[in-house]
Amino acid sequence: MQRIEPRGESKTEFGTRKGTRVRGGLALVPALAAAVVLLLVLTPFGQAAAVFHPSTFVPPYNGKGLVQITTSTLGCGGKATVAKAPKFTTSTGVATGAGRAKDSSCSSPLGYTWAKTSLSSGYFSRPMSHLSGLHHVVVQWKVSWNSTVSANLGPGFKGAASASSFLVATLYLLDETNGTYLLPSSGWSFLSSTVNGTVHSSSSATFSMYLNQTLVSSHTYVITPAINWAEYAQAGSTGHCSASAFLSISGPGGTKLLSVTLT
């Protein structure tokens, strides 16, 4: 006879799976992103795809972390910097990183200058194959952040400035066979902005994102959840104004990919 053990954890090619284990039989597991695209990347894996059964996976995750950094400025007054390089740790599911953008008045034929820093931290699952019919992907995040945006209009408030920071969670199911990114049916985001004064935010949120797709057995798929964030500062070329924006995802409690569910 088969002997059923209590709920536990088992190691898989994807990560650590939670469920009920059956000695001498198959594992029985309970059935358990409006996004702004800051990151479109190709899978880093070259090995054969693995076959997966309905499961919920938690850290440590197999697969690879993914990161992205983009800094840009326009005109002479802006400076975009990476305060802390983005990182995703597969052993814990923790994502970290911070960016900053600053700008101040300087001569510009456009009448303004700006600076922007964009960062991403996320995860590539191992490639999956032999998935046929309707499937569901659910990822659960805890995201924490510290954000400060400031705009100073200068003496007599004669200038023009703006600053903003935002966070966006993305979830894609990458079809490696045809290069298609299959989109989620839910999303999450945070935005802070000002055109005069300073706004500070230090908070956290726990949420799930969902993706429902009909898959083709002969295709290979990769799950790619990520947290993307950016800081933007703009200042007019006159009025001695300035702006700055800072955002870190290493806020209270930290940012972590809690689980990935495939059913």
Q: What would your notes on this structure say?
A:
Helices cover 0% and strands 63% of the residues. The chain is mainly β and 263 residues long. Strands 1, 2, 4, 6, 7, 10, 14, 16 and 17 form a nine-stranded antiparallel sheet that branches. Strands 5, 8, 11, 12, 13 and 15 form a six-stranded antiparallel sheet that branches. Strands 3-9 form a two-stranded parallel sheet. Strand 6 and strand 7 form a beta hairpin. 43% of the residues are buried. The model is unreliable at 1-14 and 17-46 (pLDDT under 50).
Query: Residue share in helices?
Result: under 10%
Run of helices and strands: EEEEEEEEEEEEEEEEE
Give the strand tally. Answer: 17
Oligomeric category: single chain
Q: Low-confidence runs (pLDDT<50, min 5 residues)?
A: 1-14, 17-46
Report the average pLDDT across residues: 84
Sheet/helix structural class: mainly beta
Beta-strand percentage range:
over 45%
Number of helices: 0
Q: What coarse outline follows from CA principal-axis ratios? A: elongated
Largest sheet report? 9 strands, antiparallel
Q: Termini distance?
A: 27 Å
Radius of gyration: 22 Å
Identify the notable features of this structure and list them briefly:
263 residues, nine-stranded antiparallel β-sheet, six-stranded antiparallel β-sheet
